Amino acid sequence: MDADWLIKLAKSKLKELVCRNFTVIISQAVKEEVIDNAHGHPDAVIIRENLERKLLALSKVKSLSKKGEDSIFAIYKLGKFDAICSDDKRFINRLRFFDIPYITPAVFIAILLKKGKLTIKEAYKRLDSLSPFISDDEYNAIKLLLETRRLR
User: Fold this and answer.
1) How far is Cα 19 from Cα 67, in angstroms, rounded to an integer?
2) Which whole-number Å values give the CA distances from 129 to 62, 83, 88, in the listed order?
3) Are 2 and 86 in contact (CB under 8 A)?
4) What's the distance, CA 71 to chain centroid?
5) For residue 61, how many other CB atoms are within 10 A of its CB?
6) Is the dihedral of CA 101, 107, 113, 114 positive or negative?
């Protein structure tokens, strides 16, 4: 998971739900970006607590890169992971080029709904809380998915 993605989940109050239902690993570079270099910021405090409570895991793989996206890319290539979590357009283009699966923030709402971890009503509420932090395209795609599920 990259830093921007992690911060967006924290701001939208989705992070704990995602972390309780999936194994989420961050790199040392991401930790430095969202915790160590964000002294006293409320998101940094919450994310630090998540690491301490083992809701998030810090990768044991050391990356030479100080940039979050590069470090998680390197870690992904070495490990057995399902996907990279990011919504950075340039990074996603790179992931597509290398045929690496990725998950954007709102997609987790659809996944959690499908797994029965959210009701339709909760999914709409979570999508609304995430909406200020995601693109209109991502918001509208997940909203359409929710509407078609509701109509079933």
Assistant:
1) 23
2) 34, 24, 19
3) yes
4) 15
5) 16
6) negative
CA triple 130-56-13, angle to 5 deg: 20
The whole-angstrom separation of Cα 1 and Cα 4 is 9
3-class secondary structure, 113:
helix
∠ CA 135-37-94, nearest 5°, is 40
pLDDT along the chain (152 residues), means of 10: 83 85 88 81 82 89 75 85 89 94 91 92 93 92 89 64
- The conformation of residue 141, written as its DSSP 8-state character, comes to H
Element (H, E) at 102: strand 102-103
Cβ neighbour number for residue 116 with a 10 Å cutoff: 7
Q: What pTM was computed for the model?
A: 0.81
Amino acid type, 18:
V
Written as six digits, the tokens of 122 are 């909760």
Give the span between the Cα atoms of 101 and 82, in whole angstroms: 7
